[in-house]
Amino acid sequence: MSINTVSTTPIPGQRPGTSGLRKKVSVFKQAHYLENFVQSVFDTLGDCSGKTLVLGGDGRYHNRVAVQTILRMAAAHGFARVLVGQGGILSTPAVSCVIRKRAALGGIVLSASHNPGGPDGDFGIKYNIANGGPAPENVTEAIYHHTETIRQYRISDAGDIDLNRLGVTRMEDTEVEVIDSVADYAELMQQLFDFDAIRKLFAGGFSMCFDGMHAVSGPYAKAILEGQLGAPAGTVINAVPLEDFGGHHPDPNPVNAAQLIEVMAADDAPDFGAASDGDGDRNMILGRKFDVTPSDSLAILAAHATVAPGYRAGLKGIARSMPTSQAADRVAAALGIPAFETPTGWKFFGNLLDAGKATLCGEESYGTGSDHIREKDGVWAVLFWLNLLAASGKSVEQLASEHWARFGRNYYSRHDYEAVDAKAAHELMASLRIKLATLAGQDLGHFVVSFADDFEYTDPIDGSVAKQQGIRIVMTNGSRIVFRLSGTGTEGATLRVYLERYEADPKYHHLPTQQALSALILIAEQVAGIADWTGRAHPTVIT
Ligand code: G16
């Protein structure tokens, strides 16, 4: 074995987005592309002797090849140990869990999350720091700047590690340990939730369908739900991770998880339905013929958090991303705890969690999590709901309806215009920014604008400032329209329009969501001129 130094030149465009560097597989397959980025991560970290790195991915196409390359580079960089998931598989929450449990310096997650996989699909890489969470912007920017000047990388010429066999192998001076992908994570879940109560629930005939979407959460859900909690075999569908996710879009929302929606809409539907995404950090929660918005899910879990052993002491605070509905803020107010509003991107929750200011966090993009790790966590959210269902003896719909009756309902929807012309999308945002100053006080149909701005966040812990995080038009009654460009797409631009209307009166709590939001949808079009700028009369995806 020897270590080679390879000459390279900078490759433009390696700036991480909302969650790591995500590009088409064909881009990642270019000579030196992955290596340049990984060396930039390592050089940003500096001397790693004596340190441990965690490595794993969601099993998508190119995962195994990338894992072997990164192992050779980690050995060349002088890490003491690399812990790699069996088969190269680790869900994003499992990486976070293992980093924390094994006191690693950090970890590399290979995933493009909910983006499609396969040779024509997407690939991604993300660095997580010692707290288990995504690297904050000062770190990702340092990595990016390094990619702009990189001239060489170092790599061992050692052969491939057998990723299927658990155990330790030496590569150069580095100990490479292939670890069970599920064990550490499952152990943590047992500490947080009342597994006995959930076991009794299943033993009593409670039925559930969990859609693994042929992505990474399948093995975790199978081991925990069917293996440890006694759910009948077949509870987890699409459980085997496939390199192309079976040709589907591993995005747990009512549009992409169509098979699960169909199961839950049948007359003999199970009591509970759930799905997770490509890398296992998102979740969708369904009842019989009923779906729970991610914003409501956060609020409902927060209101009942003390049913779960891991949260019996109560919550310190609740954090949500700005476009997420304000339902959780109402719960925080009732509990007398702080509510935080951060930019989109789980990385913005890290400081609040580390400082003990927030216990639960959530995002409208089907992400929910807590201070147990520093990522959002799909299987965790499902277990939390199971714990709540077991403790309350109520159905998903009952819990949601009772929540609205107590706190009022925040009707909520996101309209996505995917793969639109990037220039047009940026011009739309620029033209909205110009209008912002003129909007306050305007009468827009049933609504009067209270204020309109481009969301800016000052981190309360380190004082860092994130600007231009989404344009919000907030009405005097708290209803809102938010416009943002996605930071995770790989084709053109994706315009997201987030719509929220608060309804206090229980008489109006059961309207179809798009109907309840119809006036706001019209205003969004009038103010932003979406059809004119994008040439699209309708959104691509409505969730
Ligand atoms: C990532 C981030 C989330 C964010 C989501 C959507 O999730 O971790 O914080 O809400 O992307 O971001 P955007 O609206 O910029 O596309 P994931 O599950 O893709 O890693």
Automatic annotation (TrEMBL):
One of its GO terms (molecular function) is phosphoglucomutase activity. GO terms for biological process: carbohydrate metabolic process. Keywords: Isomerase, Magnesium, Metal-binding, Phosphoprotein. Transmembrane segments: none annotated. This is phosphoglucomutase (alpha-D-glucose-1,6-bisphosphate-dependent). It comes from the Bacteria. Its cofactor is Mg(2+).
